[in-house]
Design a protein that fits this description.
Elements lengths: L1 H19 L3 H38 L3 H51 L2 H6 L2 H43 L1 H48 L1 H6 L3 H53 L12 H6 L10 H42 L19 E8 L8 E8 L4 E5 L6 H8 L7 E6 L2 E2 L5 H6 L1 E4 L8 E2 H6 L6 H11 L2 H5 L8 E2 L7 H18 L4 E5 L7 H15 L4 E4 L11 E6 L2 E6 L1 H5 L4 H7 L1
Parallel strand pairs: 3-10, 3-11, 6-9, 9-10
Antiparallel strand pairs: 1-2, 1-4, 4-5, 7-8, 11-12
């Protein structure tokens, strides 16, 4: 199981690297800056050790202290300034790479979601998708900043300090190198546990987001049924799990740092002890205190240089520099588990199969005959929603589809819009199969009002103009025709009133705006097939009469498909199809169906 998890993490890391690699210029700057920063940082201890030996030599030989140390101190100050400057540039570059990567991933997710089939959107909770686009990308970018800086400087520091320590004294270097694996092993054991907790934390965070989105979107329903306590209880249960898992994840992540610091402290202690013994001559390797630390660094690679007080001071600093990256990388590695969990969720969405866009036929704008031939559809293998549907719609003809709730009426509209594809059978526009027509050109020939009224966070005017280039005058004209002008003008700023999620409007007012929207669309494309899916379901009787007149105006000499519960709105349809249990059980004009015993006559009478 762990082996599989490691393989998944390696795959995710590779994907992250490919995303980072898109910023090649910044990545090159980061690498060069990191090399320079490490080189300067490594040079500082040698100069400090040399200054210490110069001071010791001056005291022993009663020479001019300032003359021997001024140059070294000046160089040390310069190196410190260069180290700070290069570190600052590296941090800035890392932030640009990380947030540039997050920016790119958010764009990829947005574009991907538009290319995914609605089956996927319906299957995944909206909260999870929102969490992936906003929270997961943010977590990933934050962790990337740390990872880029720590891994780049850490690896280079380890390599550089190993070489320097071997140059100074092989035996002391081996003491440091041999104890280091203990630090790595300790960090590995802790991060294995933190990895599991961070994965669980990421999943629970998504569940919490999903619950919040569902509650906020349906708060009126929650209040109407007095479900506040149950909602709070559900939220509290998930929140409690997230608290516990989050605490454990952060606890184990936090344990890495002090544990590895303890091991690194042992390295420092043992190194200092052995070095001190060499200086005293207890262990061979000590020498004349006048030997230079800088000379020890530059002379005798793998030959075991002379150990002096200055050399030992420099070596201990290098030993600290050598162990520090292991500590920092281990801590960063623990935190990266959270980023990997977020990245995995992002890439899971990006890897989802997209809609088939191999269609090549562009349906010209104009009037078309529609033929639905032997079409069946099932959302899952458990239940078929539509069975062997056959409907012929001639150009300019108005047809209506009625039936009990859940019989498949709206599903039929979803197939016509190609939100879903038939499980079997085919739909044709003239003689062109829908499966070969590009979705964009098909939908340009369709105008519709869905059962759910979609109001966007914008002005009333822009909501009416949505999807068209209509002028303000055309939008107002459509609103007047549809019967929406009077209530719009009573709003605080009339047509320029900003609406958020539409809660300021009644369900009927929302639907009137949607009808005005489709009327504006039809002004630009009068030949478009009109689809009304329960367009009058949320409207009072008086408003319904107004809309019925507008619908008659819209459907006159136009191919139209009307889905309705209120049978009074479809009496003038050329042909009516009655669906029950997913099958067409009756068809004919209103008068024909009224005079025939069956579902339609029963529904109309009731």
């Amino acid at each position: 199981m762990n082996h599989k998890t490691d393989k998944v993490n390696i795959s995710v890391v590779r994907r992250i690297w490919r995303e980072i690699h898109m910023n090649k210029g910044l990545l090159f700057i980061a690498i060069i800056t990191a090399i320079f920063n490490v080189a300067v940082t490594i040079a500082i201890p040698a100069m400090i050790g040399s200054a210490i030996d110069d001071i010791t030599d001056s005291i022993e030989n009663s020479s001019n202290l300032l003359a021997n140390t001024n140059v070294n101190i000046g160089v040390i100050v310069l190196l410190v300034v260069l180290s700070a400057l290069s570190s600052y540039i590296l941090q800035i570059t890392a932030y640009k790479i990380a947030y540039g990567t997050a920016f790119s991933l958010r764009n990829e997710l947005e574009q991907k979601l538009h290319r995914l089939p609605l089956v996927f959107i319906d299957r995944v909770s909206k909260g999870e998708l929102i969490n992936a686009v906003s929270v997961d990308t943010e977590i990933l970018s934050d962790r990337l900043v740390q990872a880029i800086v720590q891994f780049l400087t850490g690896i280079l520091t380890v390599i550089g300090t190993i070489i320097i320590m071997l140059c100074i004294n092989v035996r002391l270097a081996l003491v440091v190198i041999c104890i280091t694996p203990l630090s790595l092993l300790t960090a590995k054991l802790i991060t294995l546990r933190s990895k599991r907790e961070f994965a669980a934390q990421s999943a629970l965070r998504a569940s919490l987001s999903a619950h919040s989105v569902e509650w906020i979107g349906n708060q009126k329903l929650v209040s109407a049924f007095n479900m506040e306590d149950e909602s709070i209880e559900r939220f509290g249960a998930v929140n409690e799990k997230l608290r516990k898992v989050g605490f454990l994840a952060e606890l184990f992540a936090a344990l890495v740092n002090p544990t590895t610091r303890f091991v690194n402290g042992l390295v420092y202690t043992f190194t200092g002890f052995f070095g001190f013994m060499m200086i005293l001559g207890v262990i061979p390797g000590g020498g004349d205190v006048s030997a230079s630390a800088a000379g020890a660094v530059t002379g005798g690679i793998l030959g075991g240089g002379v150990v002096t007080v200055g050399v030992l001071a420099a070596f201990l600093t290098y030993a600290n520099q050598y162990t520090k990256p292991f500590n920092e990388i281990s801590a960063t590695y623990a935190e990266l588990q959270s980023a990997l969990a977020s990245a995995k969720r992002i890439f899971t969405i990006l890897d989802e199969a997209e809609e088939d866009n191999t269609e090549s036929y562009i349906l010209p704008n104009g009037e078309h005959d529609i033929a639905i031939k032997n079409v069946s559809f099932a959302y899952s293998s458990a239940k078929t929603v539509l069975k062997n549907i056959d409907i012929e719609i001639s150009s300019g003809e108005s047809i209506a589809v009625v039936g009990p709730t859940g019989c498949g009426k709206t599903t039929l509209i979803n197939l016509l819009e190609r939100f879903y594809e038939p499980s079997s059978g085919e739909i044709f526009a003239d003689k062109a199969a829908f499966s070969g027509i590009t979705k964009r050109s098909l939908r340009k020939n369709l105008s519709m009002v869905l059962q759910d009224s979609f109001i966007f966070p914008d002005t009333v005017l822009e909501n009416i103009r949505y999807g068209s280039d209509a002028t303000t005058g055309q939008a107002m004209s459509a609103a007047k025709t549809i019967g929406a002008d009077s209530f719009i003008r009573r709003l605080p700023d009339g047509y320029n009133t900003k609406i958020n999620d539409g809660d300021e409007l009644s369900a009927g007012q929302k639907q009137l705006i949607c009808l005005a929207r489709v009327m504006v669309f039809n002004m630009a494309n009068p030949a478009a097939i009109l689809i009304l899916d329960e367009a009058t379901s949320n409207i009072d009787t008086v408003t319904e009469k107004k809309i019925s007149k507008a619908v008659k105006l819209l459907t006159k000499n136009r191919t139209s498909i009307i889905i309705a519960h209120r049978l009074s709105t479809i009496k003038d349809a050329d042909k009516i199809y009655v669906i029950a249990d997913g099958e067409i059980v009756q068809s004919g004009s209103h008068d024909e169906l009224i005079n025939t015993d069956g579902i339609y006559s029963m529904m109309y009478s009731s």
